[in-house]
Design goal:
- The protein is of the alpha/beta class.
- The mean pLDDT is about 95.
- About 55% of the residues lie in helices and about 15% in strands.
- Strands 1, 2, 3, 4, 5 and 6 form a six-stranded mixed sheet that branches.
- It starts with 9 loop residues before the first helix and ends with a helix.
- α7 (about 185-200) runs antiparallel to α8 (about 205-230).
- The chain has 13 helices and six strands.
């Protein structure tokens, strides 16, 4: 029996997990479908089955994958807010689902989730305690704390986030604006886009070839990009959208340059964002998680 003294079966639980964690639907909707077919199972029972099966069966796989994660050279990290209704705090308090993914340029990729009540640096520090290598993230300062405290972890920055500020300026500008091609945002974006085109061409190259090509083609563009922003930062209003995009990139320069030093480090953290997308789609449907144990079980299941 899957669970002692329970009517649930492996096939039923497979259907529940598929409905909730793959199709992003709330469990109570599945219970309603059962009721239409004259099968009456309380929502509370199904939720308890999910929690128990996650902890009893899937947790073993989760723990083994976490051990395997530390054998990789690169780890992606990201986080997204989620509300847990019964976590001992006032209603509306934000919790976070953290996501860790093996390197996008390494083989056999997988994703792990980690539920935590806060967004403090303690959580990734604890989770990555056994890891040595590169951690690719967005510009959130918590990850920079890890970079400062750990000599065996190097934090790399995300060029997709660097690009986003300039892209937003271009999107907000009139398409027929004759001055647009001469704007700082346009020129900065063109440099980044050129780097991405080069990087796309390196996809099938060996690590050694990728490193040589990056050194020859991308490194001069990175140097030109930061030299241009430093020169223009004196002329652009700090509080403008372009000024904020410039400030973000200059503050992240150390981390944005890291991908040039190792061919297995991707240019961006898009792999982590893709890894957490299923969860983000789900929370738009079920809005919140009821309990902490439910949130922890969801992390294992996702």
């Amino acid at each position: 029996d899957l669970l002692r003294n329970s009517i649930t079966t492996a096939s039923l639980m497979a259907a529940v997990f598929n409905y909730k964690f793959v199709n992003s639907q709330p469990i109570h909707r599945m219970v309603q479908e059962f009721e239409r077919q004259d099968v009456h199972i309380p929502t509370q029972n199904v939720c308890r089955w999910v929690i128990e099966c996650s902890n009893r069966y899937l947790k073993r796989i989760y723990d083994r994958l976490k051990e395997k994660l530390f054998e990789y050279h690169v780890v992606h990290a990201d986080e997204t807010p989620v509300e847990v209704r019964k976590d001992g705090r006032p209603a509306g308090s934000k919790s976070y689902m953290w996501v860790y993914r093996s390197g996008a340029l390494e083989s056999n990729p997988f994703v792990l989730y980690d539920y935590q009540k806060t967004r403090k640096a303690d959580h990734p520090i604890e989770f990555l305690k056994g890891f040595k290598g590169y951690c690719l993230t967005d510009g959130y300062q918590v990850y920079h704390t890890i970079d400062r405290e750990r000599d065996d972890i190097t934090v790399a920055g995300c060029w997709a986030h660097a690009r986003r500020g300039f892209a937003d300026v271009i999107k907000a500008s009139p398409k027929d604006d004759p001055d647009l091609p001469e704007s700082v945002a346009y020129k900065a974006l063109q440099i980044i886009q050129t780097m991405y085109r080069y990087e796309k061409a390196y996809a099938d190259k060996s690590a050694e070839e990728r490193k040589n090509l990056r050194t020859r083609e991308c490194a001069p563009l990175v140097d030109a990009f930061f030299a241009y922003l430093k020169a223009e930062s004196q002329e652009v209003a700090e509080k403008s959208k372009t000024g904020k995009a410039i400030a973000y990139c200059l503050n992240q320069e150390k981390y944005l340059r890291v991908f040039l030093s190792d061919p297995m480090v991707p240019m961006d953290n898009n792999a982590a964002e893709r890894g957490i997308r299923t969860f983000c789609l789900g929370k738009h449907n079920w809005y919140m998680i009821d309990t902490v144990s439910g949130a922890e079980a969801s992390a294992i299941a996702y």
